[in-house]
Amino acid sequence: MLTASPHCNITLPILNKVGRNLHHQEHHPLNIIKTIIEDHFSKTFRQPSTSASSTEDEPVFRYFDNMSPRVTTQQCFDDLLIQPDHVSRAVTDTYYFDETSLLRPHTSAHQTELMRAGHKAFLATGDCYRRDEIDYCHYPVFHQMEGVRLWPCSEVDDAYVIADLKSTLEGLVRRLFGDDIVFRWDEAAYFPFTEPSLELEIWSEERQDWLEVLGSGVIHTDILRNVDMADHRGWAFGLGLERWAMTLFDIPDIRLFWSEDPRFLTQFRPSSKKTEDGREFVRFAPFSKYPPCFKDISFWTPESYHANDFAAIVRDVAGDLVESVTLTDEFTHPKTQRLSVCYRITYRSMSASLVDDDVNALQEKVRQLAVDTLAVELR
Ligand code: FA5
Ligand code: MG
Protein backbone atom coordinates (compact mmCIF):
# COMPACT_ATOMS: atom_id res chain seq x y z
CA MET A 1 0.00 0.00 0.00
CA LEU A 2 1.23 3.52 -0.78
CA THR A 3 1.35 5.58 2.36
CA ALA A 4 1.23 9.12 0.95
CA SER A 5 -2.31 9.70 2.23
CA PRO A 6 -4.29 7.82 4.87
CA HIS A 7 -7.04 7.69 2.26
CA CYS A 8 -4.81 5.89 -0.26
CA ASN A 9 -5.82 2.30 -1.00
CA ILE A 10 -3.77 1.69 -4.15
CA THR A 11 -1.57 -1.38 -3.81
CA LEU A 12 1.77 -1.86 -5.55
CA PRO A 13 0.54 -4.53 -8.02
CA ILE A 14 -2.12 -2.06 -9.18
CA LEU A 15 0.26 0.89 -9.34
CA ASN A 16 2.66 -1.23 -11.41
CA LYS A 17 -0.02 -1.56 -14.08
CA VAL A 18 -0.38 2.21 -14.47
CA GLY A 19 1.50 3.18 -17.61
CA ARG A 20 1.47 -0.32 -19.12
CA ASN A 21 -1.00 1.00 -21.71
CA LEU A 22 -1.87 -2.35 -23.26
CA HIS A 23 -4.15 -0.46 -25.63
CA HIS A 24 -1.05 1.10 -27.21
CA GLN A 25 0.96 -2.12 -27.49
CA GLU A 26 1.37 -3.19 -31.11
CA HIS A 27 -0.33 -6.52 -31.98
CA HIS A 28 -1.93 -6.73 -28.53
CA PRO A 29 -5.60 -7.79 -28.82
CA LEU A 30 -6.69 -4.63 -26.97
CA ASN A 31 -4.81 -2.45 -29.44
CA ILE A 32 -6.27 -4.44 -32.34
CA ILE A 33 -9.87 -4.13 -31.11
CA LYS A 34 -9.43 -0.40 -30.42
CA THR A 35 -8.06 0.13 -33.93
CA ILE A 36 -10.84 -1.90 -35.56
CA ILE A 37 -13.51 0.13 -33.73
CA GLU A 38 -11.88 3.47 -34.59
CA ASP A 39 -11.55 2.40 -38.24
CA HIS A 40 -15.19 1.39 -38.31
CA PHE A 41 -16.23 4.80 -36.96
CA SER A 42 -13.91 6.60 -39.40
CA LYS A 43 -15.38 4.74 -42.36
CA THR A 44 -19.02 4.85 -41.28
CA PHE A 45 -19.42 8.40 -40.00
CA ARG A 46 -18.16 11.13 -42.37
CA GLN A 47 -18.93 14.80 -42.81
CA PRO A 48 -17.93 17.54 -45.28
CA SER A 49 -14.46 18.88 -44.53
CA THR A 50 -14.28 21.75 -42.04
CA SER A 51 -11.08 23.06 -43.62
CA ALA A 52 -11.43 25.57 -46.47
CA SER A 53 -8.48 24.09 -48.36
CA SER A 54 -9.94 20.59 -48.64
CA THR A 55 -12.95 19.29 -50.54
CA GLU A 56 -12.68 15.76 -49.17
CA ASP A 57 -14.99 14.59 -46.44
CA GLU A 58 -13.56 13.77 -43.01
CA PRO A 59 -14.40 11.55 -40.03
CA VAL A 60 -17.08 12.85 -37.65
CA PHE A 61 -15.42 11.33 -34.55
CA ARG A 62 -12.16 12.44 -32.92
CA TYR A 63 -10.09 9.86 -31.05
CA PHE A 64 -8.31 10.21 -27.69
CA ASP A 65 -6.31 7.46 -26.03
CA ASN A 66 -3.66 9.21 -23.99
CA MET A 67 -5.47 10.89 -21.12
CA SER A 68 -4.03 10.33 -17.66
CA PRO A 69 -5.85 7.68 -15.61
CA ARG A 70 -5.38 9.87 -12.54
CA VAL A 71 -8.52 11.99 -12.29
CA THR A 72 -10.34 14.03 -9.66
CA THR A 73 -13.55 13.20 -7.83
CA GLN A 74 -14.95 16.28 -9.58
CA GLN A 75 -14.31 14.83 -13.06
CA CYS A 76 -15.18 11.29 -12.17
CA PHE A 77 -18.27 11.74 -9.99
CA ASP A 78 -19.50 15.31 -9.39
CA ASP A 79 -19.47 16.35 -13.05
CA LEU A 80 -21.44 13.18 -13.85
CA LEU A 81 -24.14 13.85 -11.22
CA ILE A 82 -23.07 10.79 -9.23
CA GLN A 83 -24.66 11.17 -5.77
CA PRO A 84 -22.36 11.78 -2.75
CA ASP A 85 -23.39 8.42 -1.24
CA HIS A 86 -23.22 6.37 -4.47
CA VAL A 87 -21.38 3.05 -4.00
CA SER A 88 -18.94 3.75 -6.83
CA ARG A 89 -17.33 6.47 -4.66
CA ALA A 90 -16.61 4.09 -1.77
CA VAL A 91 -13.06 3.00 -0.93
CA THR A 92 -14.32 -0.57 -1.22
CA ASP A 93 -14.94 0.01 -4.94
CA THR A 94 -12.46 2.64 -6.12
CA TYR A 95 -8.69 3.16 -5.88
CA TYR A 96 -7.88 6.54 -4.31
CA PHE A 97 -4.55 8.42 -4.20
CA ASP A 98 -6.08 10.78 -1.64
CA GLU A 99 -9.51 12.15 -0.88
CA THR A 100 -9.90 14.01 -4.16
CA SER A 101 -7.76 12.12 -6.68
CA LEU A 102 -8.17 8.55 -7.87
CA LEU A 103 -7.54 6.04 -10.62
CA ARG A 104 -10.47 6.39 -13.00
CA PRO A 105 -13.02 3.58 -12.64
CA HIS A 106 -14.48 4.55 -16.02
CA THR A 107 -13.60 6.64 -19.06
CA SER A 108 -16.78 8.66 -18.44
CA ALA A 109 -14.44 10.70 -16.19
CA HIS A 110 -13.37 12.50 -19.41
CA GLN A 111 -16.81 13.23 -20.81
CA THR A 112 -17.25 16.72 -19.46
CA GLU A 113 -13.71 18.01 -20.07
CA LEU A 114 -13.89 16.88 -23.71
CA MET A 115 -17.33 18.39 -24.19
CA ARG A 116 -16.17 21.62 -22.53
CA ALA A 117 -13.28 21.69 -25.01
CA GLY A 118 -15.93 21.77 -27.73
CA HIS A 119 -15.81 18.17 -28.92
CA LYS A 120 -19.19 16.94 -30.11
CA ALA A 121 -18.25 13.47 -31.34
CA PHE A 122 -15.40 11.46 -29.88
CA LEU A 123 -14.09 8.09 -28.75
CA ALA A 124 -11.83 8.17 -25.67
CA THR A 125 -9.95 5.01 -24.69
CA GLY A 126 -8.01 4.29 -21.53
CA ASP A 127 -7.12 1.94 -18.70
CA CYS A 128 -9.63 1.85 -15.82
CA TYR A 129 -9.28 0.59 -12.26
CA ARG A 130 -11.83 -0.97 -9.91
CA ARG A 131 -11.90 -3.02 -6.76
CA ASP A 132 -14.26 -5.65 -8.08
CA GLU A 133 -15.17 -9.31 -8.00
CA ILE A 134 -12.82 -11.94 -9.46
CA ASP A 135 -13.88 -14.12 -12.37
CA TYR A 136 -13.20 -14.72 -16.08
CA CYS A 137 -14.57 -11.30 -17.15
CA HIS A 138 -13.62 -9.04 -14.18
CA TYR A 139 -10.11 -7.74 -13.52
CA PRO A 140 -9.04 -4.82 -11.32
CA VAL A 141 -7.44 -3.13 -14.34
CA PHE A 142 -9.35 -3.10 -17.61
CA HIS A 143 -9.88 -0.82 -20.58
CA GLN A 144 -12.87 1.18 -21.66
CA MET A 145 -13.74 3.16 -24.74
CA GLU A 146 -16.06 6.08 -24.18
CA GLY A 147 -18.17 7.31 -27.08
CA VAL A 148 -20.07 10.60 -27.21
CA ARG A 149 -22.11 12.21 -29.98
CA LEU A 150 -23.99 15.50 -29.73
CA TRP A 151 -26.36 17.36 -32.07
CA PRO A 152 -27.97 20.80 -31.85
CA CYS A 153 -31.48 20.47 -30.30
CA SER A 154 -32.93 21.94 -33.46
CA GLU A 155 -31.85 18.83 -35.42
CA VAL A 156 -32.91 15.97 -33.15
CA ASP A 157 -35.33 14.83 -30.45
CA ASP A 158 -34.81 12.14 -27.78
CA ALA A 159 -36.37 9.41 -29.90
CA TYR A 160 -33.87 10.18 -32.65
CA VAL A 161 -30.95 10.12 -30.21
CA ILE A 162 -31.95 6.72 -28.78
CA ALA A 163 -32.52 5.26 -32.23
CA ASP A 164 -29.12 6.57 -33.37
CA LEU A 165 -27.37 5.20 -30.27
CA LYS A 166 -28.88 1.76 -30.83
CA SER A 167 -28.20 1.65 -34.55
CA THR A 168 -24.62 2.88 -34.07
CA LEU A 169 -23.83 0.19 -31.51
CA GLU A 170 -25.76 -2.56 -33.28
CA GLY A 171 -23.86 -1.65 -36.46
CA LEU A 172 -20.60 -1.99 -34.57
CA VAL A 173 -21.63 -5.34 -33.08
CA ARG A 174 -22.54 -6.72 -36.52
CA ARG A 175 -19.39 -5.33 -38.11
CA LEU A 176 -17.23 -7.09 -35.52
CA PHE A 177 -19.11 -10.29 -34.82
CA GLY A 178 -21.20 -10.83 -37.95
CA ASP A 179 -24.93 -11.05 -38.49
CA ASP A 180 -25.37 -14.25 -36.48
CA ILE A 181 -24.42 -12.64 -33.19
CA VAL A 182 -27.17 -12.77 -30.56
CA PHE A 183 -27.51 -9.67 -28.35
CA ARG A 184 -30.12 -7.93 -26.22
CA TRP A 185 -30.63 -4.47 -24.70
CA ASP A 186 -31.21 -4.20 -20.96
CA GLU A 187 -33.42 -1.15 -20.68
CA ALA A 188 -33.62 -1.39 -16.88
CA ALA A 189 -30.00 -0.22 -16.53
CA TYR A 190 -29.34 2.89 -14.46
CA PHE A 191 -26.57 5.50 -14.62
CA PRO A 192 -26.94 8.90 -12.91
CA PHE A 193 -25.50 10.61 -16.00
CA THR A 194 -27.85 9.20 -18.65
CA GLU A 195 -31.63 9.11 -18.95
CA PRO A 196 -32.73 6.68 -20.23
CA SER A 197 -29.86 4.23 -19.72
CA LEU A 198 -29.24 0.97 -21.57
CA GLU A 199 -26.78 -1.89 -21.29
CA LEU A 200 -25.90 -4.24 -24.11
CA GLU A 201 -25.38 -7.96 -23.56
CA ILE A 202 -23.99 -10.53 -25.97
CA TRP A 203 -24.86 -14.23 -25.89
CA SER A 204 -21.89 -16.54 -25.39
CA GLU A 205 -22.46 -19.94 -26.99
CA GLU A 206 -19.36 -21.24 -25.22
CA ARG A 207 -20.54 -20.26 -21.74
CA GLN A 208 -24.28 -20.46 -22.46
CA ASP A 209 -24.70 -17.10 -20.74
CA TRP A 210 -25.07 -13.39 -21.42
CA LEU A 211 -22.01 -11.14 -21.18
CA GLU A 212 -22.53 -7.44 -20.48
CA VAL A 213 -20.31 -5.49 -22.87
CA LEU A 214 -21.29 -1.84 -22.46
CA GLY A 215 -23.34 0.80 -20.67
CA SER A 216 -24.92 3.72 -22.53
CA GLY A 217 -27.74 6.21 -22.69
CA VAL A 218 -28.99 9.68 -23.54
CA ILE A 219 -26.79 12.27 -21.82
CA HIS A 220 -28.55 13.94 -18.88
CA THR A 221 -29.57 17.50 -19.76
CA ASP A 222 -28.01 18.86 -16.52
CA ILE A 223 -24.61 17.65 -17.73
CA LEU A 224 -25.02 19.39 -21.05
CA ARG A 225 -26.10 22.57 -19.26
CA ASN A 226 -23.03 22.43 -17.02
CA VAL A 227 -20.70 22.25 -20.02
CA ASP A 228 -22.48 25.12 -21.81
CA MET A 229 -24.14 22.79 -24.28
CA ALA A 230 -27.72 23.28 -23.09
CA ASP A 231 -28.73 23.72 -26.73
CA HIS A 232 -27.49 20.20 -27.59
CA ARG A 233 -28.74 16.63 -27.11
CA GLY A 234 -26.75 13.45 -27.48
CA TRP A 235 -25.77 9.97 -26.43
CA ALA A 236 -22.83 8.40 -24.64
CA PHE A 237 -21.56 4.86 -24.19
CA GLY A 238 -18.71 3.15 -22.35
CA LEU A 239 -17.65 -0.25 -23.62
CA GLY A 240 -15.32 -2.74 -21.98
CA LEU A 241 -12.59 -3.46 -24.54
CA GLU A 242 -11.52 -6.75 -22.93
CA ARG A 243 -15.01 -8.20 -23.28
CA TRP A 244 -15.23 -7.13 -26.93
CA ALA A 245 -11.82 -8.69 -27.61
CA MET A 246 -12.80 -11.87 -25.70
CA THR A 247 -15.86 -12.19 -27.91
CA LEU A 248 -14.02 -11.43 -31.16
CA PHE A 249 -10.98 -13.63 -30.58
CA ASP A 250 -12.53 -16.31 -28.32
CA ILE A 251 -10.25 -15.38 -25.41
CA PRO A 252 -11.61 -17.38 -22.45
CA ASP A 253 -10.12 -15.54 -19.46
CA ILE A 254 -9.48 -11.84 -18.84
CA ARG A 255 -6.12 -12.53 -17.12
CA LEU A 256 -4.67 -13.50 -20.49
CA PHE A 257 -4.56 -9.83 -21.57
CA TRP A 258 -1.73 -9.32 -19.06
CA SER A 259 0.16 -12.42 -20.14
CA GLU A 260 3.67 -11.94 -21.48
CA ASP A 261 3.69 -15.53 -22.67
CA PRO A 262 4.68 -15.59 -26.35
CA ARG A 263 2.18 -18.43 -26.85
CA PHE A 264 -0.48 -15.78 -26.25
CA LEU A 265 1.04 -12.65 -27.73
CA THR A 266 2.38 -14.07 -30.99
CA GLN A 267 -1.09 -15.27 -31.95
CA PHE A 268 -2.11 -11.70 -32.71
CA ARG A 269 0.80 -10.90 -35.04
CA PRO A 270 -0.15 -10.19 -38.64
CA SER A 271 -0.53 -13.34 -40.69
CA SER A 272 -1.36 -14.02 -44.27
CA LYS A 273 -4.88 -15.11 -43.32
CA LYS A 274 -7.21 -12.24 -44.19
CA THR A 275 -10.96 -11.95 -44.34
CA GLU A 276 -12.69 -10.64 -47.43
CA ASP A 277 -12.49 -7.06 -46.21
CA GLY A 278 -8.74 -7.43 -45.71
CA ARG A 279 -8.89 -7.62 -41.94
CA GLU A 280 -6.73 -10.05 -40.04
CA PHE A 281 -8.67 -13.10 -38.98
CA VAL A 282 -7.50 -14.39 -35.64
CA ARG A 283 -9.17 -16.91 -33.35
CA PHE A 284 -7.32 -17.52 -30.16
CA ALA A 285 -6.06 -21.09 -29.98
CA PRO A 286 -5.85 -21.98 -26.31
CA PHE A 287 -2.54 -23.48 -25.36
CA SER A 288 -2.86 -26.35 -22.95
CA LYS A 289 -5.14 -25.63 -20.05
CA TYR A 290 -3.67 -26.58 -16.69
CA PRO A 291 -5.81 -28.21 -13.97
CA PRO A 292 -7.60 -25.98 -11.47
CA CYS A 293 -7.27 -26.33 -7.73
CA PHE A 294 -10.29 -25.48 -5.54
CA LYS A 295 -10.10 -24.23 -1.97
CA ASP A 296 -13.04 -23.29 0.23
CA ILE A 297 -12.98 -20.78 3.04
CA SER A 298 -15.81 -19.78 5.38
CA PHE A 299 -15.91 -17.11 8.04
CA TRP A 300 -18.09 -14.91 10.19
CA THR A 301 -17.97 -11.34 8.91
CA PRO A 302 -17.64 -8.14 10.95
CA GLU A 303 -20.23 -5.42 10.33
CA SER A 304 -17.99 -3.41 8.00
CA TYR A 305 -17.31 -6.42 5.76
CA HIS A 306 -17.20 -5.93 1.98
CA ALA A 307 -16.66 -8.76 -0.53
CA ASN A 308 -14.34 -6.57 -2.63
CA ASP A 309 -11.94 -6.37 0.33
CA PHE A 310 -11.74 -10.15 0.46
CA ALA A 311 -11.24 -10.36 -3.33
CA ALA A 312 -8.42 -7.83 -3.02
CA ILE A 313 -6.65 -10.01 -0.46
CA VAL A 314 -6.87 -13.07 -2.69
CA ARG A 315 -5.59 -11.04 -5.64
CA ASP A 316 -2.73 -9.60 -3.58
CA VAL A 317 -1.68 -13.05 -2.38
CA ALA A 318 -2.18 -15.09 -5.54
CA GLY A 319 -1.85 -12.52 -8.33
CA ASP A 320 -2.86 -14.06 -11.65
CA LEU A 321 -2.91 -17.56 -10.14
CA VAL A 322 -6.46 -16.89 -8.96
CA GLU A 323 -9.08 -17.60 -11.58
CA SER A 324 -12.23 -16.87 -9.61
CA VAL A 325 -13.65 -16.25 -6.17
CA THR A 326 -17.27 -17.41 -5.94
CA LEU A 327 -19.67 -16.97 -3.05
CA THR A 328 -21.03 -20.48 -2.53
CA ASP A 329 -22.98 -20.03 0.67
CA GLU A 330 -24.28 -17.24 2.85
CA PHE A 331 -26.13 -17.48 6.10
CA THR A 332 -27.31 -15.09 8.80
CA HIS A 333 -27.35 -16.43 12.35
CA PRO A 334 -30.97 -16.18 13.54
CA LYS A 335 -30.03 -15.05 17.04
CA THR A 336 -26.93 -12.88 16.61
CA GLN A 337 -27.75 -11.69 13.07
CA ARG A 338 -24.10 -12.26 12.21
CA LEU A 339 -23.40 -13.07 8.58
CA SER A 340 -21.37 -16.11 7.65
CA VAL A 341 -20.03 -16.52 4.11
CA CYS A 342 -18.34 -19.33 2.23
CA TYR A 343 -16.22 -18.77 -0.86
CA ARG A 344 -14.74 -21.19 -3.32
CA ILE A 345 -11.40 -19.95 -4.61
CA THR A 346 -10.26 -21.43 -7.89
CA TYR A 347 -6.51 -21.34 -8.39
CA ARG A 348 -5.18 -22.08 -11.84
CA SER A 349 -2.00 -21.02 -13.56
CA MET A 350 -2.13 -20.11 -17.23
CA SER A 351 1.40 -21.32 -17.90
CA ALA A 352 2.20 -24.29 -15.64
CA SER A 353 0.70 -26.92 -13.35
CA LEU A 354 0.27 -25.77 -9.77
CA VAL A 355 1.97 -27.74 -7.04
CA ASP A 356 -0.24 -28.73 -4.05
CA ASP A 357 2.18 -27.32 -1.49
CA ASP A 358 2.25 -23.96 -3.26
CA VAL A 359 -1.54 -23.69 -3.37
CA ASN A 360 -1.80 -24.67 0.29
CA ALA A 361 0.69 -21.94 1.14
CA LEU A 362 -1.34 -19.38 -0.82
CA GLN A 363 -4.55 -20.45 0.86
CA GLU A 364 -2.94 -20.27 4.30
CA LYS A 365 -1.79 -16.71 3.56
CA VAL A 366 -5.29 -15.75 2.41
CA ARG A 367 -6.77 -17.13 5.64
CA GLN A 368 -4.21 -15.32 7.77
CA LEU A 369 -4.63 -11.98 5.99
CA ALA A 370 -8.43 -12.22 6.14
CA VAL A 371 -8.20 -12.58 9.91
CA ASP A 372 -5.51 -9.91 10.36
CA THR A 373 -6.84 -7.21 8.05
CA LEU A 374 -10.59 -7.82 7.77
CA ALA A 375 -11.20 -9.04 11.32
CA VAL A 376 -13.20 -12.02 10.12
CA GLU A 377 -13.61 -15.10 12.31
CA LEU A 378 -12.72 -18.30 10.46
CA ARG A 379 -15.15 -21.21 10.82
C1 FA5 B 1 -19.77 2.36 -16.87
O1 FA5 B 1 -18.60 2.30 -16.55
C2 FA5 B 1 -20.36 3.61 -17.47
N1 FA5 B 1 -19.38 4.68 -17.35
C3 FA5 B 1 -20.72 3.35 -18.93
C4 FA5 B 1 -21.49 4.47 -19.54
C5 FA5 B 1 -20.84 5.44 -20.30
C6 FA5 B 1 -22.86 4.56 -19.35
C7 FA5 B 1 -21.55 6.47 -20.88
C8 FA5 B 1 -23.59 5.60 -19.92
C9 FA5 B 1 -22.92 6.53 -20.67
P1 FA5 B 1 -20.28 -0.13 -16.28
O2 FA5 B 1 -19.85 -0.08 -14.87
O3 FA5 B 1 -21.47 -0.96 -16.59
O4 FA5 B 1 -20.63 1.32 -16.84
O5 FA5 B 1 -19.06 -0.62 -17.13
C10 FA5 B 1 -19.10 -0.59 -18.55
C11 FA5 B 1 -18.39 -1.81 -19.11
O6 FA5 B 1 -17.04 -1.87 -18.63
C12 FA5 B 1 -19.00 -3.14 -18.68
O7 FA5 B 1 -20.11 -3.45 -19.49
C13 FA5 B 1 -17.85 -4.09 -18.90
O8 FA5 B 1 -17.75 -4.40 -20.28
C14 FA5 B 1 -16.64 -3.24 -18.52
N2 FA5 B 1 -16.19 -3.51 -17.14
C15 FA5 B 1 -16.66 -2.99 -15.99
N3 FA5 B 1 -15.99 -3.46 -14.91
C16 FA5 B 1 -15.06 -4.33 -15.40
C17 FA5 B 1 -14.04 -5.17 -14.79
N4 FA5 B 1 -13.82 -5.18 -13.48
N5 FA5 B 1 -13.29 -5.94 -15.61
C18 FA5 B 1 -13.49 -5.92 -16.96
N6 FA5 B 1 -14.41 -5.15 -17.58
C19 FA5 B 1 -15.19 -4.38 -16.83
MG1 MG C 1 -22.68 -2.38 -15.97
Structure, described:
This protein is α+β, with helices and mostly antiparallel strands. It is 26% helix and 26% strand. It has ten helices and 15 strands. The protein has helices spanning 12-15, 29-44, 73-76, 111-116, 158-177, 221-226, 241-249, 262-265, 307-318, 356-374, and strands spanning 46-47, 58-59, 62-64, 70-72, 101-103, 121-129, 141-152, 183-186, 194-204, 209-219, 232-240, 293-300, 322-332, 339-347, 377-378. The strands form four sheets. The protein has a seven-stranded mixed sheet. A four-stranded antiparallel sheet has the order 13-14-12-15. Helix 2 (29-44) crosses helix 7 and helix 9 packs across helix 10 (356-374). The radius of gyration is 22 Å and the shape is globular. The structure holds adenosine-5'-[phenylalaninyl-phosphate] (FA5) and magnesium ion. Magnesium ion (MG) binds next to strand 10.
- Largest sheet at a glance? 7 strands, mixed
Helical segment count: 10
Mean pLDDT over the full residue set: 94
Number of strands: 15
How do the helices and strands follow one another from N- to C-terminus?
HHEEEEHEHEEHEEEHEHHEHEEHE
* Uncertain ranges: none
The distinct ligands, each listed once, are: adenosine-5'-[phenylalaninyl-phosphate], magnesium ion
Shape: globular
SS class: alpha+beta
Helical residues, percent: 25-40%
Query: How much beta, percentage-wise?
Result: 25-35%
How are the strands ordered across the major sheet?
3-6-7-11-10-9-8
Distance between the termini: 28 Å
